Amino acid sequence: MRHRAYKYRFYPTQDQEVILRKSLGCARFVYNYFLDYKTKKWKEEQKSVSMYETSRILTQLKKESEYEWLKEPVAAVLQCSLINLNDAYQRFFKGKANYPKFKKKSGRNSIYFSPNAFSYKNGNINLYKCGVIDIRWSRTLPDSVYPKSCVVSLEPSGRWSISILVEDPTIKELKLVEKSIGLDLGINHFIVSSDGEKVKSPNIKCEYEKLKKLQKRLSKKQKGSNNRYKARLKVAKQYQRITDIRTDFQHKLSTKLVRENQTICLETLNIVGMVKNRKLSRVISEASWGTFVRMLEYKCDWYGRNLVKIDRWFPSSKTCSSCGSIQSKMPLSVREWTCPDCGVQHDRDVNAAKNILAVGNTVYACGGNVRPKEVSSGGSSYEAGNSNRKVE
After folding, report:
1. Same domain, yes or no, for 129 and 68?
2. Looking at 271, 305, 339, which one is the last position of a domain?
3. Domain count of the fold of the chain
4. Is 38 contained in some domain?
5. pLDDT value at position 369?
6. Could you list the residue range(s) of the whole structural domain that residue 357 is in?
7. Which residue from 25, 192, 308, 334 has the highest number of Cβ atoms inside 10 Å of its Cβ?
8. pLDDT at residue 228 above 90?
């Protein structure tokens, strides 16, 4: 049975909001306090602090008069902050993330409620020390399920939301289909498929223009003033609107692709390296390719589809999908080109998507990768070869 998180907006009462904000503040303080403690301990004594030790120190802090307010939220909320900090360190040591940063009050804040910190009865969520919250049930939870955990979050825009994790019995594998597709992620078009279909990103240029104006107004407000707080809130709400538009578009597109195709082939993009290009960094960040790929990953896992990622160094744009010859150079300004060997005219992105599909099918069938053969006069061709690279 698959795990699935259902996210809803909710509207706390004034008393509930005070309790939740205190819980968020305590969780943020615990995270920042022990991040600072672990950092200083390593710099001064070259010692690492274990999860057990931080939990013991937290218990001692609660007994001190200076930190009595840490007793107000549910104890599990603070323990989860320590778990999150430990996970952040683990990701850093594995090279999957940068060094943990301090949490800000003005950023996105969230608290985790374990099963012993809430109850679910008659379609209502009761958070301990907070009470039943007013959730806008945009869709109902599956029948006969009990939430395994809840995460309450407060966005910078002031939006409260709750994410409810359940074991969803409604997630079942889709019927097998024979169609496979290769996708080339781009800037001019969000995706270009091997079928020749081009899908553009939602047109939110006017939303960015509005954001620019709001940011300009914010920069002129005096720091610490009430007017600056109001201006900051307007900027955060505009950011939230842009994020909602992009997320809605990507969810609908990823669901459509998973339903219609048995195998989806993609390139492994080095987004971190691509963002370093100063001329394209903004549009690459706005495209949010990483989020889209993660959507495809978990939806393919849910519904029994295959997602194949090919080597990032495969020259999909420079390779002729007809004869396999590789061109020596292919600047980004070249959108259409004719193969000098076979004379076939190519659209750059469609040709890349066809090559990604061909290589993806090879990788999926052989469990290997493709490696270049000797370069001929017209270029080089590719063949299937053994590889230790994991196919995801």
Report:
1. yes
2. 305
3. 3
4. yes
5. 55
6. 309-385
7. 192
8. yes
Q: What are the C-alpha distances in Å from 274 to residues 128, 183, 281, 283, 292?
A: 46, 18, 7, 11, 16
Q: Which runs of E-coded beta strand occur in the chain?
A: 2-9, 109-113, 118-121, 124-127, 131-132, 149-154, 160-168, 180-185, 191-193, 198-199, 263-267, 306-310, 336-338, 345-347, 369-372, 382-385
Which residues are known catalytic residues? Answer: 184, 267, 349
Task: Classify the C-alpha dihedral 351-354-356-359 as positive or negative.
Answer: negative
Stretch 103-122: mean pLDDT, rounded? 91
β-bridge mates for residue 308, sequence order: 265
Mean pLDDT of 140-154: 91
- Identify the domain boundary among 270, 305, 340: 305
- For the record, the structure tokens of 195 come out as 């079928």
Quick one: 20 and 157 in the same domain?
A: yes
CB-based burial label for 254 (10 Å; 0-12, 13-18, 19+): buried
Distance set, CA 195 to CA 179, 258, 360, 378 (Å): 11, 15, 15, 27
pTM of structure: 0.85
pLDDT digits (tens, 9 = 90+) for 197-213: 999 999 888 999 999 99
DSSP secondary structure letters along 148-201:
SEEEEEE-TTS-EEEEEEEEETT--PPPP---EEEEEE-SSSSEEETTS-EEPP
